[in-house]
Amino acid sequence: MSHFIIHGQKRLSGTYTPVGNKNAVLPMLAAAVLTDEPVTLHNVPQILDVQVMLELLESIGVSVEQKGRSATLQAGRLRKCRLNPDLCGRVRSSILLAGPLAARHGRAILYPPGGDVIGRRRLDTHFYGLRALGITVEGGRYYSFRRKQLRAANLLLDEASVTATENVLMAAVLAPGTTTVFNAACEPHVQDLCALLNKMGARIEGLGTNFLKVEGVERLHGATHTVGPDYIEMGSFIAASAATGGELRIEDVPGSGALEVIERSFEKLGVSLGGENDQVVLSSRQKLRVQRDIGQAIPKIEDGPWPAFPSDLMSVAIVLASQAKGTILFFEKMFESRMYFVDRLIEMGAHIIQCDPHRVLVAGPSKLRGTHLTSPDIRAGMAVLVAALCAKGESTIENAQMIDRGYEQIDARLRALGADIVREE
Q1: pTM score, two decimals?
Q2: What CATH number is given for 3-18+229-424 in this structure?
Q3: Residues assigned a catalytic role
Q4: Which residues of the chain have pLDDT under 50?
């Protein structure tokens, strides 16, 4: 168990390069079991969730070779389709092996997936989609998925679940006929997975929309793919730099539209981005001030399925709002427990009223003070880390490995931007 010690009120400034998208690479690793040929991924983030997923794949016989941020996987000698219960319980992405294992290898036995405790994270949409494609699902102490006759289907998902969309797609690519998926998730990481699957020989149309069309193929082959940058990480670093009054230059940013979605909400807090080509610049000459709606109404930042503001950035956005002048409402619509971490910010001196499990009202700017904290989940952990960077005095954040699950070498990368942070075991 490691912890961070932070001395706050240091401006975060400099050049930052995002790593690969955590939420894209995890389903891509699962997709490797759809073929016997090698699948090579570049720009793989070196984070704990990726390492656990690779261990899970190795435990069933997938060959894994890593060199830096590149990984080559080959599932030509799969030994079993029953997953390790301990490893399943350590990552949410273990559920993503249900679709490809059952579709390609006939069955999959999974134990309840782990991940952040931010509210109920239902699996019903996964089960509905896989059953419609001809895969039986039985639950209990573990989940059993068995392929009878894989078939195409016309699916209307009851929620635009990212992981359910990905699971369904990885099964549908091998189902004979035409499968349609309406109300599909269309986040950039879903699009990136589709791009990899198409490179492997799949035929998926409608990328970037909520209506996907899949023409099933007999087999997939190997491919090489570069994982797109993690826009959640980019948003987190932007929030940290802006909250501390720093200047940030982000390199190697493709025009995916992800930053535009983030900036649309951050602008309500007085944050604007510039730059050109593949660079984005956050100027230090930012006046953090809440921008009122027409009629001087208090504005609102709310999350939702893409292209709404991402739920994974709500926590750091609340910390950023605590350093902006004015009052703003945050409305978390997707997870009923995500907002509970604000008690830690209130303890640090933030002016926050929690209206109910889904809404908090933030009035700033607040003078935060250092304290002793524990990271409850990946995104709330990053948020309290940003709060500690803003606070006066010393803060200790226990359970640092929780943040490591989603952010690569976060302490070293923040130090490179001027943060006073050390890790102790």
Answers
A1: 0.92
A2: 3.65.10.10
A3: 116
A4: 116-119
